[in-house]
Amino acid sequence: MNFQETSNFIWQIADEILRDDFKRGKYPDVILPFTVLRRLDCILAPTKDEVLKRYEFLQEKGLQKPDGQLRKAAGGKSFYNVSGYDFKKLLEDKKNLAKNLIAYLNGFSENMREVIDKFSLRTTINTLDSKNLLVPLINKFSEVDLSPDKIDNHTMGTIFEELIRRFNEQMNENPGEHFTPREVIKLMVRLVLRGDETALKQPGVIRTIYDCACGSGGMLSIAKDYIREKINSSADIRLYGQEVNDETFAVCKSDMLIKGDDKDADNIKSGSCFANDGHADQKFDYMLVNPPYGKDWKKEKEFIDAEVARGKLGRFEAGTPRINDGQLLFLQHLISKMKPVEEGGSRIAIVLNGSPLFTGDAGSGESEIRRWILENDWLETIVALPGQLFYNTGITTYIWVLSNRKPEYRKGKVLLVNGAATYKVKERRKEKEIEFFAQKMRKSLGDKRNELGEEHIDKLDDLAFDFNAGEFAKIFDHTDFGYRKITIERPLRLNFKTSPERIANLKASSAFINLASSKKKGAAGEEEIKAGQELQALILDALDLIDSDKVYKNRQKFKEVIDAALTKTKQSKSQVNQLSLLESGTAKVKLTAKVKNLILAGLSEKDETADICFDDEGNPEPDPDLRDYENVKLKEDIYTYFEREVKPHVPDAWINETVKDEKDGQVGKVGYEINFNRHFYQYQALRPRVEIAAEIEVLKSRLFAIFNEKAGN
Fold first, then answer.
1. Residue 181 in contact with residue 219, Cβ under 8 Å?
2. What fold, for 3-170?
3. Which of 121, 325, 429, 496 sits at a 20 to 30 Å CA gap from 300?
4. What's the pLDDT score for residue 370?
């Protein structure tokens, strides 16, 4: 059977046997481990008898560590099984199938038992047995031949990924987690290795490759195979990875053990690379990863914050992005794993969605991380991929290529490659967009409707390597993506009036009401409330002395009027002993500047024709409602920009020079964003009016014909 037939057959096992007894969300807990077991069973079948004979002999001799000899008996494989069972013999004793199956699992070599334990298979076996599903399940799996003669390792890995993709798609879980199509991995490998061919061809060359979200290990395996097959068959390529999902980790590690890559299998660690870095303090030559999109990092916040606090000694020196998207944390984690330049440096290829390109304003976590990457000159190339390449998302994705050993001609530069470019064709009177760098699949797989052919991989790889500006590639200085966000202020202008409406607003304001309230209890609280009531009465009586029809357009002059009215009223009330509490000074409620300001606030309205309000130092007071912001390119002086773009339109505006960047201390906050659409935007001329009018007439004729037909009926 080919790849599709085999994956369909295994998928049908779930539908035929597990339906009704297992929730769909539990299907992977059964199907994935039994697929692995059947693969192992088929691989070990040819040497099974020889292993058993050798094991019996070694037991008789009392040898305590027969691992090496048993591997040799298994044909040099890195694992073996010393139980007397295989899938066929298990079915000979159906009554004791569960017990014998456990014995079969215990018969595996220690390295493979560690993998099997990650599946929690023993619990699953008991559940299957209690539901009388174990016999039909083993029987069905026995029908599929997963031996290497029928299905090579590459195809088997693809089958695992296809099964996992289907399970995730059906459950609609973890939408941000995507298995990377093989052709996308090939492109990533080409992008990260291009230019290193001469060094990789050296005799005895050793290189390390790392994936911190390795899934089933596809990226690592393809990268190693590419180097061995296309560049240097004798190269010593060492793989390192980490995977947080136990089941996927088990698939990855078992696959490497099956291939005989013992050391590589040992280098695959389980758990989160954030909270439990399985390769702490290690550095790598090449790094490839497709992290989950939109993954929140709340569970690991404590560990991540601790790393941030370590500054340059930690993995997240640049800070953190928003809590619901950890993509830029993965990128920082990889950068922390780069070898020093004097030791050869490193190169990274990572797949991200559009969010890390532009999400976040100046000073935000995302912007500061982009700033850190660009100002350190690590970003080399970003390739926008065609849409609908991935199995469970249709969004546009991007491959970022980073390096701390850029060639001289690329230093300070960033190349953008528009692999998502399309052209329009007309089909059956409709316009259709066709991708320049992808081709339609004959049959869709989930959301995957496009694929990269070899010619597309070649073109994108050449565009990234050649470093020539053109229709699909553009070269920028890293500062071209930076800007300085300046705060534009305009003066506050208010008029004042003591009309009944404005006095009502003052009385209804919380600040005025709170004058006659207290948090104290008992007599002290009552005294403070009474003093506040006296103050409220004083204010209202003073306002009665001011002409309610007159509008004041100068705040300072109105302040003088208010002060005079308050003084006069206070003197009048003191003479008749109506301010006993305020005069005694025992209460904390007094006629302070704060109280006068709340009076002004309650009696004011915005007025563009009024005079500018000044603060105590004689500076214009800004109006928060008129505050605006301008993003000025880093290469341009902010004051030159202000005089040209702002001043002619709002002559009374000024730059707020108190808002400064925390890092460089200059006016305005620095931000960085990479807007692909802006850089590759192509103006589309509007169609002529005559053409549009003609189409409208045709549509009207059709509609009238339909109406007439319906009316006739």
1. no
2. Ferritin (1.20.1260)
3. 121
4. 98
**Which residues on neighbouring strands pair with residue 347, listed in sequence order?**
286, 403
Distance CA 254, CA 635 (A): 54
Q: Where is 210: in which H helix or E strand?
A: strand 206-211
Confidence of residue 175 (pLDDT cuts 50, 70, 90): very low
Least confident segment among 121-125, 169-173, 260-264, 405-409? 169-173
For residue 296, pLDDT beyond 50? yes
Find the length of the chain: 713
Cα torsion 296, 301, 304, 309 to 10°: value is 140
CATH 3.40.50.150 domain locations along the chain: 174-484
Residue 176, pLDDT score: 46
Q: How far apart are CA 488 and CA 484, in angstroms?
A: 12
Q: Where in the chain is the domain with CATH 1.20.1260?
A: 3-170
In 364-419, at which residue ranges do the beta strands (DSSP E only) sit?
379-384, 397-403, 413-418
Q: Is 342 exposed, middle or buried (0-12, 13-18, 19+ CB in 10 A)?
A: exposed
Q: Of 81-90, 344-353, 565-574, give the lowest mean pLDDT range.
A: 565-574
CA gap 630, 487 in Å, rounded: 7
Cβ contacts of 209 within 8 Å, gap of 6 or more:
220, 223, 224, 237, 238, 239, 240, 284, 285, 286, 287, 288
C-alpha to C-alpha distance for 651 and 491, rounded to whole angstroms:
11
Cα separation, 36 vs 376, in Å, equals 45
Say if residue 575's pLDDT is above 80: no
Task: Say if residue 211's pLDDT is above 50.
Answer: yes
Candidates 448, 494, 479, 403; CA nearest to 635 is: 479
pTM of this structure: 0.86
| 366 contacts 360 by C-beta, under 8 angstroms | yes
Question: pLDDT tens-digit profile of 303-357?
Answer: 999 999 999 999 999 999 999 999 999 999 999 999 999 999 999 999 999 999 9
Give the residue-averaged pLDDT of 560-564.
94
Dihedral angle at the C-alpha atoms of 307, 313, 317, 323, nearest 10 degrees?
A: -10
Q: Could you tell me the two tokens for 486?
A: 């300046």
What is the β-pairing status of strands 286-289 and 206-211? parallel
**Helix, strand or coil for residue 78?**
coil
- Does residue 177 surpass a pLDDT of 60? no
H-state helical runs in 434-586: 454-466, 500-508, 510-513, 522-543, 555-575, 580-584
Which residues are CB-contacts of 537 (< 8 A; sequence separation ≥ 6)?
578
Predicted pLDDT of residue 447: 79
Q: With CA atoms as reference, report the closest residue to 220 among 273, 293, 157, 277.
A: 157
CB contact at 8 A, 373 and 356:
no
d(CA 598, CA 264): 72
pLDDT(430) > 90: no
Token readout for 265 is: 């299998």
Torsion of CA 194, 197, 199, 203, to 10 degrees: 150
In the numeric block, which tokens belong to residue 228? 């061995």
Share the mean pLDDT of the chain: 91
Write down the pLDDT at residue 135. 95
Buried-state track 282-291, b at ≥16 Cβ within 10 A, e below 16: ebbbbbbbbb
- Taking alpha carbons only, the member of 430, 488, 421, 440 closest to residue 653 is 488
